[in-house]
Amino acid sequence: MARTSLIHSATTKPSIHERALGAYVRTPGGGLIRCVGLHSQWIQNTWSAIRSTVTATSPSLVHCFKVCLPGSDADFGLQEVGIYERERANTESIVGFILKPAPLSWMIGTLSIDQFFADLILDRVNVTTTTSQVVAESPVDLTVERIVNLFDKELRYRVENDQWETQGREYFAAKVQFFIQHNSTLQFCLPAFPCKSSNLEKVMGVLPDRGEEIALRRLHAFAHKIEQIYPPGARILIISDGHVFSDCIGIDDETVDGYGDHLKVLDRAISLAMGEETSRVQFQSLVDLFNLTSLSPLSSPNPVGMMSLPKLQHYLTTNLDDTAELCRRILVAGCQPSEESLRTQIESGDESTLALYRGFSRFMLQDLDQHPLTQSLSRSQRKKLATRVSFEMILRNQAYSNLIELMFPDCLRLSIHAHNNSGPKFGIRLFDTATVRAIRQLDSVGSDDNNGDDESAATASHLLHIPTPWHNCIVEVAGDPKLYIVKYGVIKDSSLTDKYSSELIKGNLAKGEGAFVSLKRPLNPVRTA
Questions:
Q1: Which of 517, 523, 527, 467 lies closest to 492 in space, CA to CA?
Q2: pLDDT at 129
Q3: 3-class DSSP state for residue 99?
Q4: Highest taxon of the source (predicted)?
């Protein structure tokens, strides 16, 4: 059993996310083409000073400036900033990234974390839209409206106090319009599909099954419908968050990798069956995002030991992969908020943070009750452990959200968590409620009592996850047109054997088929008094 004392997992050093002022695209002559980021307006207001600095030297592939700019309290009180620039190959554009100064910086081998993140962000700044042909205004408006309506009808998850109509729809439409004005493929990103739950009362095993199959088919179908409206189509990037949390929930990094590899096999089969030349659904993990293969320190015998990065608290003993662990430490150093700020949000009763904290705590207590590594602990000890792990998971969750904000500023951000849909994140349903129904017990099969149905559950303010494949299993009931998503423990309950006979139907992921449970009612059911 790992130690359970509370050790700070975050750092007091300001993160890259806190210090980032934005990214931009400019011409070689210094003309500002576009800028993105929370403080993009500051870049526009200060551009004349930035331009005089960055155009003072002859162009080269890479530049890094430490410059003084006009500043005031309203402009963060800045006098000096770091500007990182790169000439983008095969384009006439130069991309830049601006950071507030920091007295001390984490190091990744011999590379500062500032330079590391600057390189990542400069690689991803969207320059294709700056040269794509702009289409006529009228078709743009009509196409935007059709795509927004499609998302609203097909995927959007409705919640109590939903703000889609008052704020979110306009925000979503503006994002869609950006791509369509430049005749570019729409880009969606979805942090999801981490790994199967460690709780075998929830799932059938560690590999993707029919739940993942149904969810992936739904995402492919949505992207296909966009393509019918708008020929450049859409790409949905699934950013697996398995390595972000795996050590918190007692799952080995190797298990996360196995789940991800099999998920890609399943997705490839679905893509081929739909006749896609390039898959409309694509995958990246935390390891993929950080692209560490070219980092020289990784070739050393002890790459993690070479890094001047915050060490993480591991509350459960798992087998850690060096590269995955390094990625977690980079994530924490670059994007995690301070523990103090999170505690303040919780203690002050911040609605969304408090709801997430309570949801994670319940979720972890439920899973830790069943985890082999906690069976020697008392109920009280498990509760304390769940509280500590939940706090760590919220920190990691915010860090990952901040990373995505930095690296995918133009993307339409989807989520498997319930949101009020005002933007920038929009909750989606991975299962069509017309064909798949979430239930808590088998007594609800075939009834219309909404027992545990995911739409009714959306009104709960503490909801952590919209029903997902990796916390449940799929059940097919003979003679019932609907499929059901339910915890596997419900199926295993021996008290139900007189009502149903069950059979595990094996899948074939290479053929696009996931495993599921088949239930049949006995021809001569046993009557109870």
A1: 517
A2: 55
A3: strand
A4: Eukaryota
Cα separation, 194 vs 286, in Å, equals 10
Residue 165's contacts (CB-CB under 8 Å, 6 or more residues apart) are: none
Per-residue HEC secondary structure of 241-262 comes to CHHHHCCCCCCCHHHHHHHHHH
Quote the mean pLDDT of the chain.
Answer: 84
pLDDT level of residue 159 (50, 70, 90 thresholds): confident
Q: What is the mean pLDDT of residues 207-225?
A: 98
pLDDT for 453: 47
**460-463 contact pairs (CB < 8 A, 24+):** 461/160, 461/351, 461/355, 462/355, 462/358, 462/359, 462/362, 463/159, 463/355, 463/359, 463/417, 463/418
Domains in the chain, please, with CATH? 16-130 (3.40.1840.10), 436-520 (no CATH)
Nearest to 40 by CA among 409, 425, 426, 424: 409
Give the alpha-carbon dihedral of 75, 78, 79, 84, to 10 degrees. -100
Question: What pLDDT score does 376 carry?
Answer: 81
CA–CA dist 165, 171 (Å, integer): 10
How many other CB atoms are there within 10 angstroms of residue 174's CB atom? 11
What is the pLDDT, as a whole number, of residue 63?
67
Please say if the pLDDT value at position 77 is more than 50.
Answer: yes
Amino acid identity of 480?
Answer: D
Burial of 221 (0-12, 13-18, 19+ CB in 10 A): middle
Q: Give the N- to C-terminal CA distance of the chain in Å, as an integer.
A: 47
**pLDDT value of position 195:** 95
CB 152 within 8 A of CB 378: no
Q: Which two tokens stand for residue 332?
A: 């924490």
Across 6-10, 108-112, 288-292, 431-435, the highest mean pLDDT is recorded for: 431-435
